Amino acid sequence: MSTGLSHDPLATSAATWRDRTEDPPAIPDELRPPQGVGVRERHRALWQRHALRRQRAEDVYAASRNPARGWPVSGNRAVLAFFGDLVRSRKKSFALLVALNALAAGSALVVPRLLGELVNRVQTQGAAVEGLDTLALVVVGVVLLQALFTFGAQRTSTHFGQDLLASAREYIVGTILRLPVGRVEGASTGDLVTRVTRDVGTMARSVQWGVPRLLISLLTVLLSVVAMLLNSVVLAVPALLVFSLCTPAVRTYLTRAPKAYITEGATYSRINTTLTETVEGARTVEALGLSAARVRAGSDDIEVSAQAERYGMTLRNVLFAALNGAFQVPQVVTLLVGAYAYGRGWVDLGQITAAMLYVVALSEPLDAVIGEVDRLQVGAASTSRLLGIAEVQPDREPGDRLPDGVELVGEDLRFAYREGHDVLHGVDLRLRTGERLAVVGPSGSGKSTLGRLLSGINRPRTGSARVGGVDLVDLPLEVLRTEVALVTQEHHVFIGTVRDNIVLAREDSSDDAVREALRAVGSLAWVERLPDGLDTMIGSGRFALTPAQAQQVALARLIIADPHTLVLDEATSLIDPRTARTLEGSMNNLLEGRTVVAIAHRLHTAHDADRIAVVMDGLVVELGSHDELIDLDGEYAALWRAWTS
Amino acid sequence: MQDFPPRTATFFSGSDAAPSPDPDTRTPAAFLRWVLGQQKALIALSSLCYSLWFLPMTLGPWIFGRAVDDGIVGGSTAALLGWATLLLGVVLVGAVFGIVSHTLVVRTWLIGLYGALEMVTRKVVQMGHVLPRRSPTGEVLSVASSDSDEFGALTEILARTVGQLVSYLTVAFIVLTMSWQLGLLTLVAAPVLVGAALPLLRPLHRRQQLERSRTSDLTSLATDIVAGLRILRGIGGEQTFGANYDRQSQSAKEAGVAAGIWQAVVEAVGVLLSGIFLVALVWLGTRQVEAGTLTVGELITFLGYGLFMVGPIRTFFEFAQKGVRSMVSARKAIAIFEQRPPWRAPAEPVALDGTGALHDTTSGLTVQPGILTVVVSAVPEQSSALADRLGRYLPADTEPVPVDGDDGVRGRAARRARAEKARERARIAALDEERAGHDWGVTLGGVDLARADLADVRRQVLVSDTGSQLFAGTLQDAVDPHGRLTREQAEHALRVANAEDVYDALPEGWQGQLDERGRGLSGGQRQRVVLARAIAADPPVLVLVEPTSAVDAHTEARIAERVAGTRRGRTTVVTTVSPLWLHHADHVVLLHDGTVVAEGRHADLLAVDDYRRVVARALDEEEATR
Q1: Can you give the pTM of this predicted structure?
Q2: Which of A209, A283, A598, B423 could disulfide-pair with B129, CB 3.0 to 4.6 Å?
C-alpha cells in the first residue's frame, strides 16, 4: 500500500526536533531577585527586573494585537471611530448627560462654600449671630437640589451607557453572522467564543460604567477647579500646582498599566486553560504518569502570572508614591498659604475652610479619572479584538447569474490551505444527477477538501466547481444553500424555538412547510407533544432533546433547504449508531431524489454507492462502481479484500 | 517572610518527599482559619501598615483644626509651623505606608490565590481518575477560578478591617474629647448613614440579579451562535438568530436600566443624607462656638471628620459580606480538598513482571504475553470496562455529586440538601475504598494488581481509553510528554500511528503548537496522535480501546499492520470490531455479557455464529445510515 503522501512528510524532522534539556525555565533567572548583595545592588536589580517585566508585558500586548493564528484585531483608531459614531448618533442624550452631571457636580461644590460662610459668620460676629438658621436652611435646599440632580444625572448615565452597550454588542454579533463561509468552515471557533464572552464582558464594563463615570469625574474635577478659584485664587493656585505635580507619573502609569492588566489577564486565562486540561484529562495524566509534569506546568503558569502581577504592583506603587503626595500635601499647602493670606487680610476663615474641604474632596474624582481611563483602555483592547471580526474580508462577490440546471461539475480543482501546499492536484469530477457517489481515501488525501469545493464553501485555487453552468462561489448564499448543502457531523441545536431551529435556509417558511419537513423526518409526533409545539424553546439550558431528536431536527433543516445535491462529510457520524435504526427512515426520506456525495470512512458505505471515487494524494485515482473497481484490482480492491476476508 | 508565588507541596510533592500537611477541612470556618493561619504574620503586619496608611485621614483634620486655632486665629507663627510640620509628617508616613501596605496586601492576596490554585492542581493529580467520578469537573474548576480569589480577597479585607477599626477608634477618641455631643453625633451618624441605604439595597440587588441573569442568557446566546456558526453560515438562519440576540440584548438593556435607576435612587439618597448630616453637624457646631464651648478650629476638625466615619463602617459591612462569601467558597473547596485517594499501599509490594500473562477473573480473559490480542464485543461498554479492570481503574459507574445546585433553597432545607450530598459523597468514597481495598481480580504474571504499588501497575500496563486527551503544547510534547525519546523513536511512533499528516500540516514541524485538548485537529488526527503517544510510551503491556474508531478504512488498515509489527514481542490488547484489525491479531477473544465465550484466530472464529454476527454488525449499521 502506498503512503498516501508522495513526499516524506517527516523530511524536516531533524531540523525541528529540539533537545529538551535546553528548554528555557518558565521565567528567566534575571527576573529573580539577587541573593546576598547590598541594598544599592538590590535596588538597582529591582528596577532592572521592572524594565524586563515591562518588556514582557509589551510583548504579550503586541502579540495580542497581532495574533499569529485566529481572527484579526483592529487598531485603536477603529475603536475611537466606532465609539465616536455611536456617541454622535446619540447627541441629545449625550448633551442631557453632560448638563445634568454638571448641575449635580456644581451643586455639590456650592455646599463647602456655604459651610465656610457659616464658619465665617460665627467667627467674625462672635455671639448673637444673625441669620445662621436661614443659611443652614439654604444649605439644606442646595443639598436637596444636589440629590435631585444626582438622581437625574445617574439615570441619564445609565440610559446612555446601556444603550451604547446594546448597540455595540448587537453590531458585533451582526458582524459574526456575516463572516465568510470559507473562513468559518476552516477556523476553530475557540477564539470567537472567547471574544463573545470575555471581550464582550470587558467591553460592557467599560462602556456601561467607564464612559459615563469618566465624564462625570472629569466634569467634577473641572468644576472643582473653577469652584476653588472662585473661592480664593490665592488658596487655590498653590494647591492646584501641587496636584499637577503628579501629572508625569499619572501619564506614565496610564500608558503602561493597560498593557500590564492585559498581560495579567492573559496569564490567568493560561492558568485556567492548563488546569482545565489537567482536570478533564485527569485519567490521561494518571495513565501516562504525567502528574509531576502537570503540577510543574501549573506552577510555571503561576510563576509567569506572578511576574505579571509584580509588574502591575510596581506600576501602581510608583503611581501611589506620586498620588499620595500630590493628594495630601495640598492640605499642608492650603494651611500655610491660608495662614499667611489670613495674616495679610486677603482671605477669611470661611474661605480657608472651604478650600480645605475642596482639597480633600478633589482626590476622589481625580482618582476616579485615573481608574476609569485605565479601565477604558483595557476595554478598548477588548473592543479592538471585537472590531477585528469586522475586518475579515468577504470571500465572495455574488454575481447575478442563476444556475441553468442541476448538474454539478468540478474541473481541474486545486486548492491550498497554505501557499505552495496544494492538497488537491487537479481533480475532475462530473456528478450524475441523482447518483450516490462515495469518496474514499486515506486521511490527508484531500477528500474533505474536495467536499468543500463541491459544496461552494471554498473557492478553488484553479479550475471551477459549477452548478448549471455557474460557479458555486459566485452564487448568492441564499441560492447556493438551496442548490447544494455540506452536511458534517455537527447537529447543533440552537437556543430558540423548534421553528427557529428548522427554517434556517428559508426563514420565511410557513408553519405548514415546517410541519411537512418534520413529518418527513418522522418528528412531527413528538414535536406536537411538546408543551408549546413549534414554539417550544429548545437548545442548551432549555427543553432538552434526545440525541435522536436533535439529529432529526438537523435533517429537517435540510428538508427545508431542499438542495438537489448533498455532500455528506463523515455522514455516518451524523447518525449515532445507537439511534441509527430509528433514523433510517428519516435519512432515506432526505436523500430520496437527490444527488449525494458521501465522504466515507467505512467501506460498506462505498459498497452500496452507485460510483466510488478513490482519492489518493490529492487526485482521483479510481472511479467507478464497486464491481468495476474490484475488477480493476487496484487500491480499492485491495482494501475491500482486507476488510472482508 | 513569605512571598508569592508560594512554595507548596500540599497533597502531592512531585518527588519522594512527603507532601506538606493537609489543610483543616473539618468545617468551612476551620478551613478559612487554616488559610489565614498560613500567613498570619504577614496579615498582622499588613493590618498595622494599613492603620499607618490611614493616618492622614485619622489625624489630618485634628491637626488642621489645631493649626487654625493656634496658628491662624491665635496668630502664632511658631505654632502654625509646628502643626504644619506635623501634618506634613503624617502625610509622608501615610504615603510611605500606603505603598508598603499595598505591597503587603498584594502579597497576602496572591499567596492565598496561588496557594489555592496549587492545591487544586495537586489534589487533582493526587486523585487521578477517581476525582471525576466523585466531583463535577465544573466545580473543581470553579474552586480554582473563582473561589481561590475569594481566599485572597479575605486576607485583604481582614487587614483593611483591622486598620479601619484602629482608625475609627482613634477618631472616636478625638471627637469625644473635643465635644461629646458632636462626637456622639458623628459616631452614631456613620452607621445610620450606611444603614439607611440598606432597605434600598434589597430592591437594587433584585434588579441587579435580573440584569445579571439576562446578561448571562445573552452570553449563552452569543456562544450558541458561535458554536453553531458553521450551520448558520452553511445552511442559513442568520436573520432569525441575529434577531433573537438583538431581542435578548434589548431585554438585558432594560433590566440594566431598571437596576441603574435604583442605583441612582441609592446614590441620591446617600447624597441627601450625608449632606443633611453635614449641615446638622455644622449648625450644632456653630451653636457651640457661639456658646464658647467649641473653637473654630475644632469645628473645622468636625467638618473634616464629618464623612470620614462612613469609610470604616462601609469596610465593616464589606468584611461581613466577604466573610459570608468566603464561607461559601470554603465549603466548595472542602468538598474537593477533603477527598482522599481510595488506594492503600500494600504492606509488602510485589514487583510486577510485565512479560507475564495477564488474567482477568471476571471475564475469564487470559492475555498471553508478547502477542496482539483483539477483544471483540457487541457492546463497546463491556470491552472498555474490561480494559479499565486490566489497568486497575475504578469503573465510571458513579454520578459526580455537586456541592451547589438548588439555588432557591435556603435555611433548613438547604442544610438538609447539603447533608444529603455529603452522605452521597461519603457513600461513593466508602465504595471506592471497598473496591480498592481487597484483591483486584486481575493478575499480571500471577500477581494480583492490588499486591503491587499502583505506580508499578501504571508503569507496566498502559490503558489508552477513548477519553484519552491531548494537552496544549508542541507536537513534540504531545508525542513525548516525558521528554525521554530520541528523535528516531518519536518519528517511528508517528509513522506507526500514521500521523505524519499532522506533522506535515504544521509549518514548524515538531515545534508546531497544538491547541488545548488538541482542538483544531480533526477527530481522526487527534486519535492518531494519542495512539502515537501510547506507542512511544512503549509499555510492557499496552491496552488500546477502540484506537481507530474515527479513522478511515485506508488508514486503519495501515495502522493495524504497523502496530502489530512494532509491538511484536510485547503484550498488546486492542478492543475493536474492525476486520482490518482482526486480520493482524495473533489471538481474538469474543466477549458476551462481559465474559469470554469464544477465542481463537479470526479466520477460525468466522465459523462461530455469534462472532460472525458481531463482526458483521458493523456492516449492518453502515447500511442503516444509508
Answers
A1: 0.89
A2: A283
